[in-house]
Write a structure and sequence with these properties.
This protein has helices at 14-19, 30-47, 60-71, 83-94, 112-121, 144-154, 175-178, 204-212, 222-229, 240-257, 259-277, 304-313, 340-355, and strands at 4-5, 52-56, 75-80, 98-103, 128-132, 134-135, 140-141, 159-163, 182-186, 198-202, 281-283, 294-299, 317-320, 330-333. With 356 residues, the protein is α/β, with parallel strands linked by helices. A hairpin with a 4-residue loop joins β6 and β7 (140-141). It binds pyridoxal-5'-phosphate.
Amino acid sequence: MSNFFVPGPTWVRPEILKEMTRPMIGHRGAEFRELYARIAADLKPLFATAQDTFVMTATGTALMEAALVNCVNRRLLVTTCGAFSERWLAIAESLGLEVDKLAVEWGQAIDPEDLADHLTSRRAHYDAVTITHNETSTGVTNDVAALARAVREESPDTLVLVDAVSSLAGIPVRFDEWGLDVCFASVQKAIALPPGIALVAVSAQTLARARKMPYRGTYFDFLEYKKQADSDGVPATPSIPHFYALSKQLTHIIREETLPARFERHRRMRDMTIERTAKYARLASDPAHASPTVTALEPSTSDAETLRYAMKERGFTLGGGYGQWKERTFRIGHMGDIPLKSLEAMLDALDKVASG
Ligand code: PLP
């Protein structure tokens, strides 16, 4: 049973924590290569791709930077709908890139037609467009398939860079079918591992672009990851405990629970959360795009922090509001390995606390 409902890091099953205490192995030896090969095979169905995938000892923010240094020479379009999609802007500016922004209000999703219109009306060519699949600050899931299609149709050589940090393994991601170029996730969200590594899928077009980028840095160079991955290795010393845990967790996700059942459990957790909180809290974001992994709520019976504190006293940890929604909202993370029964128990307690 879990009593931890933060939208990342999420609850980690005890057997996974135990896996992280196994003895070290050398990362250039046969044992590590076998471990890596097993992981690489399971990453294909996770991203629904036949293209390259890598594991980086870094977090999601690092992968945003990695995507930009490998793919964007000059100009970037960032789509924003909350705090994490806005983070791309700050990173791009810190790299000296020319950035345009297509923004919607917090709580809304990006409209694929607006993206298509923006791309046709601007004469500027973008090296890449960023899309945040699931905006964790507001609990909004963007329609990546439709957004990527808009980019493919309006500007075929613009790369599509997707943050799937709080969606991968909780919401379907179809890398090849949707025509994505970079898609990444840190593991402390719906994958339900302790924070510390990140997973990424890259297209052939991305690797071709990286080859043309003269200054890709060192640690984030996708071509170096590709070279090493081709012989089941990584460029620098990885977090080996995470690799043990990832291998076991991917077996669980793909072969024990299975992806369709996992996605269904996440949808049920979302629906249960929205339904059971409706009498004392307003869904802060557009219901048509309500996220299966995190819900941002505006309580009507007390302020968000008081509610969270009262729940903490009863042994349940909920997420606070984020960024400009910090005061107004609290967030319930319902992703990863959280059993439905745990969510039900938490919602029972919240009902009592909020109904006063
Ligand atoms: N993108 C999204 C959607 C996130 O929710 C987060 C973290 O919560 C990040 C990026 C940053 O990831 P990390 O904290 O792993 O660097």
